[in-house]
Amino acid sequence: MKRINKEMTREVNNKQTEIKELLKQYGHDSLIMAMRNYGGPLGALYTAQRTEFRLWAPFASQVEVIIFDGYYGRPIKSIKMNRSEDFKYFYKVLEGDQHGLTYRYRLTFLDMTVTESVDPYSKAVTVNGQRSVVVDLSQTNPEGWGERMPAFASASEAVIYEMHIRDFTVASNSGIQHKGKFLGVAEPGRINPNGSSTGIDYLKELGVTHVELLPIFDFQTVDETNEKPKQYNWGYDPLNFNAPEGSYATDPYDPFCRIIELKKMIQSLHDAGIRVIMDVVFNHVYEVESHSFHKTVPGYFFRYNEKGEFTSGTGVGNDTASERFMMRKYIIDSVKYWTEEYHIDGYRFDLMGIHDITTMNSIRAMLDEIDPSILLFGEGWDLYTPLSHHEVANHNNAAFMPRIGQFNDGLREALKGNDFDASARGFINGAWHMESKLARNFMGGVDFGTYNDPLQLIQYVEAHDNYTLYDRLIKADPYLDEETIVRRHELASSIILLSQGVPFIHSGQEFLRSKQGVRDSYNKPDNINQIDWLRRDKFAHSVELIKGLINLRKSEPLFRLPTYEAIRESMSVIRQDYQILSFEYRCPEYKLYVVFSAQNNVLNYRLPKGNYIVKLANGQVNLSDDVMTGEIESYPVERYTALVLKKLTNK
User: Fold this and answer.
1) Is the dihedral of CA 467, 468, 469, 474 positive or negative?
2) Domain 565-648 in the same topology as domain 43-140
């Protein structure tokens, strides 16, 4: 008996010591929250026989499910939810098939504050995301909806094309019927007034492997009730993270239409051999006070400073707290849902530098269980956050996030200058002493000491929230002739598509897209943002060059080396001065000589004596090996162009 009492006393003491340590580590309130963390499923858990509603609301004293008469009718019933036995969540089971049932939650807190909220885990919503709807997702699958695409070969083979649903489809010269809609992207056989392909057929011709879609989840600032919305927005103002955006559906009042049509669009892209990357924005919400995070668990999902104010490293007034268990769980759950239900092939994390490393690595691990070839990358900018600099998922910590990519603004700025300064210059438009910086970035950051491999670098020169390259070049030199602008533009795109890492092009970059000089056009009208499909004919040479470069990259393994070891073994810088950058590539069978000239004159480039195959010269790509130089010791490089020559070993 004494022995049993001693063991019980020891166990109690151990538990008290453990609790004291936890209190010391987390504090009283944080310890209570840790005890209430819940790792199981949440939301409306549907089966044909029953639906169980689960809500994590640890501060609430009571939660009710409010049931509505149809999607837009009055409330007809309020049902009190039960607490789980472990006090971790509220739940209620409704028997029978509840597909289409419309609901919200009413929460009462200890101070008698009452809030109403949509379900944070809503998968279907009414117009403008104001009510949650139970959904049988099997009824939203289009005919022929099957499994995921087979695993992608390697990130080294990816060519990413960033586009906005509305921009891509809305122009009158697009030939697309469902303008501004998911279905518009899926329409085959569309042409511009000149008879040239547009839409999905154009994407297939271009040869990109992935399209990265600006936000397609439900966002707040576009009124879905307007058939022709007066507002425009890119969508970086999250409302319901797990439901598609209604303004892209042909009927935003039908909660299932947007799901069905998004799946049809994804299916069409997959059938065309093009994978889909989703731009996700978990770093902030549009309006904290009205968001379901704040209404269901006030004070938990966001970061605060020492004054109790919202931090704003995002620059929009609030930052989510990814380091907290339930926020991390929410992000992981959401990404997993989109991956499994919509067959998404990659994720671009907006302002990833706000998130913590553990969260991003947890997402990578989860995706690897589904398909390790799913791409994961983001904006790893160094942003203000209360987190330690060792914890944040920015580019300084890339080595601690293997197989998670980072946008490489070093290459962008080496090419065209600082994006925030319209007068700044880079390699392509007159800056001196950019050659070394450009070479290091072009080689995938081989000597940076920051990355694990070159595939962590997303290589780009323009994106949706930059000046387009065309506009940027004109702003720097407003009186320059157009031929020189075009040559400089083509040179930059050539460098991007031949660089080590993962190349990324902005929709319309291939035909010198202009947004009329507007840099940050997130809320500007269609006439600023829409793709002008006539430019694909006006700048047909540039389009053909981009097509050729994509195919050249696909056919030449030396342009997509997967490791730094391979880059060191295969690549050397030959020259990096006087607006000239050149490289030698080596493999047992042949060598490549690659030259980029930003000089405004013809360069007679010296070469080892021999007979060369011309792969790229003066904006013309040759995919076959039948264009020979004969025996030479130099080759003329036209102004603002790239040159690629191939020399067989011992030839």
Assistant:
1) negative
2) yes
Per-residue pLDDT tens for 160-176? 999 999 999 999 999 99
Q: What is the pLDDT of residues 103-117, one digit of tens each?
A: 999 999 988 999 999
Q: Give the 3-state DSSP-derived string for 345-358, with helices as H, strands as E and coil as C.
A: CEEEECCHHHCEHH
Prediction pTM value: 0.94
- The answer to whether 271 is a known catalytic residue is no
Q: What is the CATH number that goes with domain 43-140? A: 2.60.40.10
For the stretch 293-341, pLDDT in tens is 999 999 999 999 998 999 999 999 999 999 999 999 999 999 999 999 9
In the chain, what are the domain boundaries? 2-36, 43-140, 565-648
Inter-CA distances, 444 with 14, 449, 511, Å: 52, 11, 26
Which of 224, 237, 350, 409 does the annotation list as catalytic? 350
Residue range 565-648, CATH number? 2.60.40.1180
Selecting among 379, 453, 462, 490, the annotated active-site residue is 379
CA distances from 639 to 161, 425, 487, 642 (A): 27, 17, 8, 9
Structure tokens at 621: 């790509």
Question: What is the C-alpha separation between 250 and 258, in angstroms, rounded?
Answer: 8
Whether 350 is catalytic = yes
